[in-house]
Amino acid sequence: MTDRTTSPRAGHPADDALLREVAQLVVSALHLETPAAEIAPDEPLYGEGLGLDSIDILEVALVVSKKYGLQLRADHEDNTRIFASLRSLADHIAANRTT
Q1: In whole angstroms, what is the distance from residue 7 CA to residue 11 CA?
Q2: Distances in Å between the alpha carbon of 64 and those of 55, 90, 97?
Q3: pTM for the whole structure
Q4: The 3-state secondary structure of the chain, one letter per residue
Q5: CA 57 from chain center: how many Å?
Q6: CB 52 within 8 A of CB 39
Q7: 8 Å CB contact between 88 and 49
Q8: In angstroms, rounded to a whole number, what is the distance separating the alpha carbons of residues 25 and 75?
Q9: What is the pLDDT of residues 21-66, one digit of tens each?
Q10: Is residue 33 within 8 Å of 44, Cβ to Cβ?
């Protein structure tokens, strides 16, 4: 059972449009050969799954911060959760974006 009171998705889940937009942003920022539409929302971004490394994650954090006006710091205690998947990243953006 999911605890909806502490889930980042409880109050601000990303909609399909934001998921597609973030997927395209990741593909563009990293010049991936994988089409954005083929990135599964719940598969891991790091390591297995999309196969990003720590440098890729830093690049994604930079472009996401610029585009959505939020801070994604390297020392943020929730980075593992935020970057766990495309959906978790998009949910974080939906909950914290300023633009």
Answers
A1: 8
A2: 14, 10, 9
A3: 0.84
A4: CCCCCCCCCCCCCCCHHHHHHHHHHHHHHHCCCCCHHHCCCCCECECCCCCECHHHHHHHHHHHHHHHCCCCCCCCCCHHHHCCEHHHHHHHHHHHCCC
A5: 9
A6: no
A7: no
A8: 22
A9: 999 999 999 999 999 999 999 999 988 889 999 899 999 999 999 9
A10: no
